[in-house]
Amino acid sequence: MHEQKSAGTAAVLSALINGLGQIYNGHIIKGVLFILIQALNGFLTTILIGYIFLPIVWVICVFDAYRSAQKINRRANRARF
């Protein structure tokens, strides 16, 4: 059975450190990939292209963590009944 996850907590964790919300949701590989992508984007800010991708990936990461937690909760609720 799936454990309930707080969508708000997942989003806040991912907003603080991209990928942390995914790790909280149990999606370890996805979380680590987001962390690595944002580290690369941070490096790319030295040549200015990172300033474009850094906020885009940040928003995607926060939204993904929120939606993933909601999906986990829906599956947990269906399994309960």
First CA to last CA: what distance?
11 Å
Rounded mean pLDDT score: 91
E-strand count: 0
In percent terms, what proportion of residues is strand? under 5%
Overall tally of structural domains: 1
Q: Could you describe the largest sheet, including whether it forms a barrel?
A: none
How many distinct helices? Answer: 4
Runs in which pLDDT lies below 50 for 5 or more consecutive residues are none
H/E topology pattern? HHHH
Helix percent band: over 70%
Based on secondary structure, the structural category is: mainly alpha
- Rg is 14 Å
> What general form does the structure show?
elongated
Keywords: Membrane, Transmembrane, Transmembrane helix
Organism: Aliicoccus persicus
Protein name: TM2 domain-containing protein
